[in-house]
Amino acid sequence: MIAIEDLAVAYQRQKQEHNALQNVSLTVPQGTVCAVIGPSGCGKSTLLKVVAGLIKDYTGTVRINGGEVSPKKLRIGFMPQNYGLLPWQTVAENIRLACRIKDGWSEEKAAKMEALCQKLGLTDLLNRYPQELSGGQQQRVSLARVFLLEPDILLMDEPFSALDAITREEMQDVFRDLWEEAGITTMLVTHYVEEALYLGQQIVLMSGSPGTVAEVMENRWQGSRQWKTTTEFFAKSQELKEKIKAMGARTL
Ligand code: ADP
Ligand code: MG
User: Fold this and answer.
1) Does residue 227 form part of some domain?
2) How many structural domains is the chain composed of?
3) Mutation test of ligand 1: which of 14, 15, 21, 45 has the most ligand atoms closer than 8 Å to its C-beta?
4) From CA 112, how far away is CA 93, in angstroms rounded?
5) Where does the ABC transporter domain lie (predicted)?
6) Which domain holds residue 41?
7) DSSP assignments along 108-131, one per residue
8) Would you place residue 252 in the very low, low, confident or very high pLDDT band (cuts 50, 70, 90)?
């Protein structure tokens, strides 16, 4: 479980403090996906970085499974927007990387990696380098790496944004299937309301300047492909887009 209470983060810019986040409280129950949406610049990435342990200068409390945010003690799966693959390492090396650093390598891990690569269609790409892959393929490598790690929590920063619409929907399904098997507590930042409505059990709408939680919605249809084709889904999407627009921001 991720529990955030009264979180505030300020950045120093031109010798002045700028509040990026203020009064942010939210709880992500164990084994659920929390989708975070909101206008550009409202502090979504800042929020993920705090939970990932990358930003330590904050006030308020952040607890993961009842303990402090400690990348040393916890397994934190962080997927940055640009996939985070190392260009000088092959696909296979990239997938093994996080696990190797955390636990060393084992037969068991190798078997799990093989199964994951089969599922993600990566078996024939293992000796390639990231720049020899399409965006969708790179995203699959990134997913294989993070699911091989079997993290305590998974943090994804606009993971599918750089993909074309068809590939993005495909990758949402790939993620949904992997997630359903593993049931990892996940925070997924996105600016696509449809993605939030498809993948999040909980949808947190943030507003900006300074970034805070404007609304929390429960979404009991999470993961249902059928739900995506209903008029209710369409109406909810429109409603969310209007809310984000009303905050004075662009939506995609
Ligand atoms: P989002 O991910 O929602 O687009 P960010 O968390 O990246 O928003 O940024 C929130 C605010 O903090 C923005 O106004 C941004 O310009 C500012 N900001 C982000 N990173 C830094 C930084 N390292 N130094 C100063 N200001 C920053
Ligand atoms: Mg961001």
Assistant:
1) yes
2) 1
3) 45
4) 15
5) 2-233
6) 1-74+191-252
7) HHHHHHHHHHHHHT-GGGTTS-GG
8) very low
